[in-house]
Amino acid sequence: MSKPKDTNPNRPVIQIRRLKKYYKVGEEIVRALDGVDLDIHNNEFVAIMGASGSGKSTLMNILGCLDKPTNGAYVLNNKPTHKLGMSALARVRNEEIGFIFQTFELLNRASALRNVMLPMLYSSRHIFSARKRAKHALKRVSLDDRMTHRPNQLSGGQRQRVAIARALVNDPSILLADEPTGNLDSKTTVEIIELFKELHATGQTIIVVTHEEDVAGHADRIVRLRDGRIISDHPTESDPIHQDWVDRMASGRGSLAEVTQAERELNHIADQKREQALIEEAKSKPRKRLFKSSKSSEIGSEAKS
Fold first, then answer.
1. What residues contact 107, with CB distance under 8 A and at least 6 apart?
2. What residues have CB less than 8 Å from 12, skipping those under 6 apart?
């Protein structure tokens, strides 16, 4: 029933090069993403972190094919999404990406089974096996005894499990979770994170966008953004900010939301680099166009420069 997972660890399922997303607000140009390079491989479990305004939501929207970059390249499972039109993007979004939202986004009047079947109604690929696949997806998240229940008959954790089953039903290349535990209590948060880890163990690629250090700590890798740029990308066990946070929590010296010394130092260095980059850009290319076709920058183009 499930499509075979690509077990080649050297082939990224996501390749991003020089990704930029600019918005014009009045006379000001807002650089939501300002030159992001990122590879995510099959069967990685990655947490993307950043404060409000860091660009993580913009990056999530582009990763999820909900938006297109101003410039740069984004290749998802060998599909150059930055070159695709809106109808082709919608097809990629339906077949390649499983979305999990903080607010569940379930249809209140539909059963758990009907909610999970929903993505297949927009694609002819599994239209005749939709019910069978939805039942299998609900079984994977241990809700095979709640298939006929509506969302208002389910707990918060159960509703999120329905949302995860819906995300899994098309066998996506990636699971993209936006603050998936934000509306859950601590006990249910642990249960959902354990479910993510079980799915990861079966070969599923998972990307979690979060501001919670304790949630990010369950991922294998943490990518941090600030002012539209990646300022840190480490395996979780060697991420200096996370390790500083773990040490502070273990010793009782800090709170969940407190900024660590390592984070302050990294932010200071990132701010200096950004300021210097803006100065150099202004000197070297004072008339550079910020808005140009995303087709002009492709994966591998950096090899020609």
1. 114, 115, 118, 151
2. 39, 40, 41, 42
Return the sign of the alpha-carbon dihedral for residues 244, 249, 254, 257. Answer: positive
Q: Which of 2-11, 43-52, 67-76, 224-233 has the lowest mean pLDDT?
A: 2-11
- Is residue 76 within 8 A of residue 96, CB to CB? The reply is yes
Rg over alpha carbons for the chain, rounded to the nearest Å, is: 20
Q: Full-prediction pTM beyond 0.70?
A: yes
Q: The tokens 């009782």 sit on which residue?
A: 252
CA–CA distance, 36 with 46 (Å, rounded to integer): 16
Residue 70 · residue 21 · CB < 8 Å: yes
Record the tokens describing residue 85, joined without a space.
């039109």
Per-residue tokens: 75: 């290749």
C-alpha distances out from residue 70 to 24, 33, 73, 279, Å: 11, 9, 10, 21
Reported as type and span, the H/E element at residue 46 is strand 45-49
Distances (CA, A) of 215 to 46, 65, 109, 129: 11, 24, 31, 35
d(CA 263, CA 269): 10
Contact 153, 181 (CB under 8 A): no
Using a 10 angstrom Cβ sphere, with 0-12 exposed, 13-18 middle and 19 or more buried, the burial of residue 116 is buried
Average per-residue pLDDT in the chain? Answer: 88
> What mean pLDDT is predicted for residues 45-69?
95
